[in-house]
Each structure stands twice: as structure tokens, then as C-alpha cells.
Design a protein that fits this description.
Blueprint lengths: L8 H6 L30 H14 L3 E2 H8 L3 H13 L3 E5 L3 E5 L3
């Protein structure tokens, strides 16, 4: 069967479906520990500061890929930082050709 996925890659990137749902294990074996979803743990403030600094320096909206390369953070770190900053109201994510991150009223 086909798995139904969202057409919005941003939401899929920030909250991917659980990977252990279809995993098989031997009878009597203990279930494998599953990592928490992205955004489950605390976001390092350094990552948030670096993303904000890059957005201020660039002066224009940046894609996740651009932020990833400019800050030298991992893509998941950038996504977690953007999600935390979005919850604080410091950035917004707009859909153009790709999703871009922009400062909100700096």
C-alpha cells in the first residue's frame, strides 16, 4: 500500500512520521529505543543565535539550505532553531518556490 504524505515538505521535515511503527522484532525481544522527534529536546541557544545572526547579516529571507551552509549547523539543528524562533515570534516561514525564513519586524 502507498503511504499518504503531506504535500508540505516543511511540516514533513520538522515532524517526520515514526520510523519504528512497522519494525518487526523477535518474540520476547525488548522493544528498541526510539529517538524522540525533532524538536522534542531543548534547542541550543547557540543555534538560535547563529540563525538570527545570519538572517540579520543577509538582510533577505533565507532558505533552510542557505542557513545550513552559512551557519555550518546541521539541517535538523537549523530546522529545530527555526521552529523555536517561529514559536517565539522572531521569524516567519513563507512559501515561495521553497520555504524561506524571514525575520518578523526587526
Amino acid at each position: 500500500m502507498r503511504e499518504i504524505r503531506s504535500a508540505d515538505p516543511w511540516s514533513a521535515f520538522l515532524a517526520p512520521p515514526g520510523r519504528g511503527a512497522g519494525a518487526r522484532r523477535e518474540p520476547g525481544a525488548a522493544p528498541a529505543a526510539e529517538p524522540g522527534p525533532p524538536g522534542a529536546g531543548p534547542v541550543p541557544e547557540d543555534a538560535c543565535r547563529r540563525v538570527l545572526a545570519q538572517l540579520r547579516t543577509a538582510g533577505t529571507p533565507q532558505s533552510l539550505e542557505q542557513l545550513h551552509h552559512a551557519t555550518r549547523l546541521g539541517l535538523l539543528e537549523v530546522a529545530d532553531a527555526v521552529d523555536a524562533l517561529r514559536e517565539r515570534g522572531l521569524v516567519a516561514v513563507d512559501r515561495e518556490i521553497d520555504e524561506v525564513v524571514r525575520l518578523t519586524g526587526d
